[in-house]
């Protein structure tokens, strides 16, 4: 795939029964409680936890049962409680993509989360990865929303 080719981003929007502030904190501070490590991690059955350092330059990483840290990405922007932008590297900086997560107030104690995963053209296998993540984010965000309730 030529670098100039564009692959549409994955875009997911969900409505949440929580304030923007609570939804944002749950996404970052509680990621260890809702992220499906058994199916969505580098260490698979050896994965123990995940950490999201919600600040510019902060790391997103998993910790395996042996204590080894494995990098998932780096926070590029953190505009709490409305927006996060982070690289998604999964220990492969050359194939990094970018994820933006926006939180918006929907009134009546509800909020929305919009996730935009872009930069697929940065990978030779970007079209395949985009297809995999299009379905993968559904399950991950479903776990997030269920744990928030």
Automatic annotation (TrEMBL):
InterPro entries: ASHA1/2-like_C, START-like_dom_sf. CDD domains: SRPBCC_CalC (cd08891). Gene3D superfamilies: 3.30.530.20. Belongs to the AHA1 family. Residues 17-143 form the Activator of Hsp90 ATPase homologue 1/2-like C-terminal domain. This is Activator of Hsp90 ATPase homologue 1/2-like C-terminal domain-containing protein. It comes from the Bacteria.
């Amino acid at each position: 795939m030529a670098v100039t080719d564009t692959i549409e981003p994955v875009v997911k929007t969900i409505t949440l029964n929580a304030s923007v502030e609570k939804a944002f904190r749950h996404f970052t501070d509680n990621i260890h409680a809702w992220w499906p490590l058994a199916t969505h991690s580098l260490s698979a059955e050896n994965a123990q936890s995940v950490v999201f350092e919600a600040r510019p330059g902060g790391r997103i990483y998993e910790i395996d049962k042996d204590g080894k840290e494995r990098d998932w990405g780096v926070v590029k922007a953190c505009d709490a409680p409305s927006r996060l932008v982070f690289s998604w590297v999964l220990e492969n900086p050359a194939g990094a993509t970018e994820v933006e997560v926006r939180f918006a107030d929907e009134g009546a104690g509800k909020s929305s989360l919009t996730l935009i995963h872009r930069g697929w053209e940065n990978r030779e296998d970007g079209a395949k990865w985009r297809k995999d993540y299009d379905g993968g984010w559904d399950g991950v965000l479903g776990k997030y929303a269920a744990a928030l309730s």
